[in-house]
Structures are given as structure tokens and as C-alpha cells.
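fyi for ur records
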Amino acid sequence: MSWVITAIAVSTGASLYGQSMSAKAQQAQIKDQMKQEELAAKSEELARREQLNEALAANTVSMAQSGVDATSFASLSLASARKASLAEGQEDLSFKLREAALQRRSKNVGAIRDAQIASTLLQGGMQVLALKGPGGGSTPSEAPPKSSGFKPSF
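which gave:
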């Protein structure tokens, strides 16, 4: 009978280890995804700034060739800069929201892992108790005395 209990313990331990490793792998994958998204966001920001600089340079050349007043160019540049700033703010907020969602997902994976481990431990204990049978495997000399059948009435 002790070999069965040992087998249950080994099985429970292996299950715990597998659940823990699976959760760690998921968390590592989520962290990698966060890093990739951060790199992609930085790359997109660089491309957007290059495009903005090209547009500003083209506007400057165009203004110089057409003889447009510098004050009107300054107001156009200011309006363009405001639009670019709003777009950057929205993209930054979007990135932060995605990052927060991934962090929550990573924490949820850890919480689920902990719950699964607790459940597995309880299942292993229940299997051992079920093997011992009613009374927890006590010997007849340790069994509680039988009642006389007397039931007081109130």
C-alpha cells in the first residue's frame, strides 16, 4: 500500500512541476512579446519622425521658393507640430495600454498556476485518503467505541 501512496506522491509532484514550467514558459513568452512590441513602437516612432522631418524640409524649401511670409509658415509649422504631438500621444497611450494588458495577462498566468498547484496538491491528498479508506486507515484497536444506540430526547 505504501508503494501506491509513493506513486501518488510522485505523480502529484510531476504534475506540479509540469504546471509550474508551463506557466513560466507562458510568462516568458508574454515578456518576449512585450519587448517585441516595444521595439516595434520605437521603430514606428523613428519612421514617423523621419517622415515629419521630410515634410518640414519640403515645406521650408517650398516656402523659400514661393516667397511666402515667414509668419504664415510659422503658424503652419505650429499647427503641423500640434497634430504630430497629438498623434504621438495617442500612439504612446496605445502602447502603454497594450503593455499593461500584457502585464495583467502575465500576472493572471501566475495566479492560475498557483490555483492549479493548490488543486493538484489537494487531489493528491484526497487520493491518499481514499486509499486509506473510512476512518483514515486506523487499526481496529484504535477505532472509536461503538455507541450504545441511546439517543436522548429533549
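The radius of gyration is 34 Å. thats all i got for now
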